[in-house]
Amino acid sequence: MAPRSHIFHLLIIIVLVYSMISPCCSLEDEVQPNINDIHLFSDPDRETGFDSRAYPSPFLSSDGVSSDMAEVIEGGISSYLEKLAAESAAKIVSVKSYGAKGDGESDDTKAFKKAWDEACSSGAVFEVPENKKYLVKQIRFEGPCKSAMAVQIYGTILASDDRGDYKKDKRHWLIFDSVDDLVVEGGGVVDGNGKIWWKNSCKVHKSKPCKEAPTALTFYNMKNLTVKDLNIQNAQQIQVSFEKCEKVEASNLTVTAPGDSPNTDGVHITRTQNMQLSSSVIQTGDDCISIESGTQKLKITDITCGPGHGISIGSLGDGNSEAHVSDVVVDGAKISGTSNGVRIKTYQGGSGNASNIKFENIEMEDVKYPIIIDQNYCDKSKPCKKQKSAVLVKNVVYQNITGTSATDVAIKFDCSESHPCEGIVLRDVRLRLEKDEVAQALCNNVELQQIGTVSPSCPDIQDL
Ligand SMILES: *[C@@H]1O[C@H](CO)[C@@H](O)[C@H](O)[C@H]1NC(C)=O
Ligand SMILES: *[C@@H]1O[C@H](CO)[C@@H](O)[C@H](O)[C@H]1NC(C)=O
Ligand SMILES: *[C@@H]1O[C@H](CO)[C@@H](O)[C@H](O)[C@H]1NC(C)=O
Ligand SMILES: *[C@@H]1O[C@H](CO)[C@@H](O)[C@H](O)[C@H]1NC(C)=O
């Protein structure tokens, strides 16, 4: 930071403090109104002609000017200057200082964009203040940025629910695009405000045409990304999506939407390598986690899922496409009240493979199909035709999976006739019905090993 802006701060502080303690006014009576007046300085362009964008300053551009001033009065100038020095080490660009109102009604899109441009080009921290609700339309937070970036979301970012605002790009609301070394955190809320989309979904009203709806939060083409301590809710469609990312750590996410909200996948992962997702709670209307083609080296730990459709790999091979998913581990999950537990689903007619997958240490409660591989998946209005080729499913281990199934079928392997599932292992799997009744396993075209206690077990399979 330029020394002269420090001097400038000091001058303002001295003038303000002096005017407060000067004999003309009683401090007790006047502190409040004075502090409110001081707030005007947060728009320095108007008040002083000082260009805060040319001389970024945590004092002038910070939204907390009035509380800062209170601190100055209480704590003295020297401690304030210490704080100032600490802040200028990591400059903070708050959306508030770029005009965002945060009243939940005014359109704060422009302020967010301006603040992002400033933060990205200067390597500052992009901040969304707490206790405010910022209504925004579509925003693309685009990189590359000057240096590693931090985005701190303390308050709420609320999506516009005017569907006309999504004409330019029907698939995204907030998107981070090509920003390397980004950390997104803060404990705040990203709210897709999705009701209007759900109401008009063809999944809810069969008579309505099926239309695309935006993903609330997308990370696209990011390298070395950390996303933690965030609440993502009520997405228009997918809640949070990682696409074409490399080296991702996502943790302590709370992802929620009503159980009957259509297509609201919780965490969607596609074309992404080296990702860890941990310690997260996902309650939503579609898959808690959906893992799509191009995903390699994904580790998922400590997940609470339900309501929702469970943890899904696929659907893969749609429209005769080639799909590859490998080295996926789900270790530690509690899945309850969902339509599936851990699922691999592929369309007939695809190619490629889903391989080296391990599901372990998972507790199921009241799950319709706790363990399922469906190589004849079909989610089309017309039934899918029988086709020869298939995405291969091989080397899938299910270990230490216990709990209850809501249907008779606790384990379902419905593999392709022409390309049976290979190298499937059930080890220490104990699933039962609610009232301690014995569940069933349906096993078609599967090459399977069963180790330890496996219940229910596939008929006609030799136990090892
Ligand atoms: C990854 O990002 C973090 C935080 O932004 C940064 O501290 C770290 O140096 C980056 N790692 C690499 C290998 O670039
Ligand atoms: C997880 O995030 C929430 C905010 O969403 C925060 O209050 C909490 O402290 C975080 N937990 C951990 C262990 O960091
Ligand atoms: C995946 O499938 C393709 C054929 O569709 C094959 O060429 C490739 O070797 C397979 N990869 C692995 C890791 O099994
Ligand atoms: C089995 O998984 C449960 C969690 O569902 C875990 O508490 C337990 O320690 C695991 N048992 C073994 C032997 O790893």
Automatic annotation (TrEMBL):
Catalytic activity annotation: (1,4-alpha-D-galacturonosyl)n+m + H2O = (1,4-alpha-D-galacturonosyl)n + (1,4-alpha-D-galacturonosyl)m
Annotated GO molecular function terms are:
polygalacturonase activity
Q: Does the keyword Signal apply?
A: yes
Q: Which InterPro entries match?
A: Glyco_hydro_28, PbH1, Pectin_lyas_fold, Pectin_lyase_fold/virulence
Keywords of the record, alphabetical order, are: Cell wall, Cell wall biogenesis/degradation, Glycosidase, Hydrolase, Secreted, Signal
Q: What EC number(s) would the UniProt record show? A: 3.2.1.15
Any idea where this protein resides?
Secreted, Cell wall
Q: Which GO terms describe its biological process?
A: anther dehiscence; carbohydrate metabolic process; cell wall modification involved in abscission; fruit dehiscence
Q: Which Pfam families match?
A: Glyco_hydro_28
Record-stated family? Belongs to the glycosyl hydrolase 28 family.
State the protein's name: endo-polygalacturonase
* Organism field: Daucus carota subsp. sativus
